[in-house]
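Morning run. Coffee first, then this:
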Amino acid sequence: MLPLKIFGCFLAGLAVLTACNPRPTPSPSPTQVARVRPPAVAGAFYPADPQELAAMVDSLLAAWSPTPGRPLALVVPHAGYPYSGKTAAAAYAELQGQRYEAVVLIGQNHYLAEFEGVDVYAQGAFRTPLGDVPVDEELARAILAAQPAFSDRPLWQAQEHALEVQLPFLQRVLPGTPIVPILIGRPTPRNLEQLEEALVQALRGHDVLLIASSDLSHYPSYADAIQVDQAVLEAIVSLEPERLRETLARQMARGIPNLLTPCCSEGAVLVVLEVSRRLGANRAALLHYANSGDIPGADRDRVVGYGAVKIWKEEP
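And here it is:
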C-alpha cells in the first residue's frame, strides 16, 4: 500500500488544478454537518447552476453509447468536469436504460489526515444543484452491521469531492436511485479486507452497482503518464487485485519524475475489483482514457490521468 504522503492528492501539486481539488479546508465540527449533505465543490468541479449542469452532463453523455454487457461495477475518474468529464461520461453512458436497487459509491479520503478508517454515510441524502440523492439506509445499515469497526460520521465526508462529483451523472442516467457513499480513510490491508467482506455479505442477493471513484497518475509528464496509466489500466481490466498491487508498486519504483501516485484512490479500485469478482464478474473493458494534458492549452509537464472501466458478468 502507498504511504499516507502519497495517497492524498492534497499533499502535493496544488498548482495543478486538474487533479483532485481546490485547497483543503479545515475539518467541520459534527454540529456543522446535516444529514442532508450540501454540495462541497459545486461551482468548482462542476457548474453550480442547475440548468448549466444538466446541459453539460447531457452533452457529455450524448457522445457515447452503451456497449454490450450490463455493468456490475465501474471505475470512474473524479476531477473537474472540463478535464475528466468526457471520460466519466463514457462510463455513465453504460447505465442508460438500466435499473438498480442502489449504487454503492466507494472513494478514498483526500483531505483529512486524522481519518484512518472506513466511513459509511448511512442516513439522509447528498444534495447537488440537481436535487437530493437519497441514501439507501437499509443497505447502509447492513454494511455497518457486517463490520462494526466502520463509522457513520458525516463530518468525514463533508468536504470530500471524490463521491460528490459522481452524483450529477447518476442523477441523469439513474434518476431516483439511492446511494450508499463509502469513504476509505487509509487503504490499509485491514481496512480493505474488512470492506470487501462487509460488502460481499451485505450485497449478495441485491441488484447493486459498484462504483470506484479514482483518477490515475498524478503529476508526471504527458508521455510518462500515458505509460504509467496504460500499465495500471491493463492491471485493472485483468480483474486481478494482486496484479494491480504489483503494478502500482512497480510504477512507483521506476523513479518517474514528479510521479506522486499511479492511482490516487487505489483502495477504492482494489475493493471494487475484489467484490465484483466475488459477486460473479468475469469481464472488464477499458471504455476511455485521457489525461489533463489533452485539454487544449493545458500543461503537459505535470498531468493527471483519467480512465473509465466497465466490469460485468458474461454468462456462458
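The chain has one domain: 4-21+35-312. Good start to the day.
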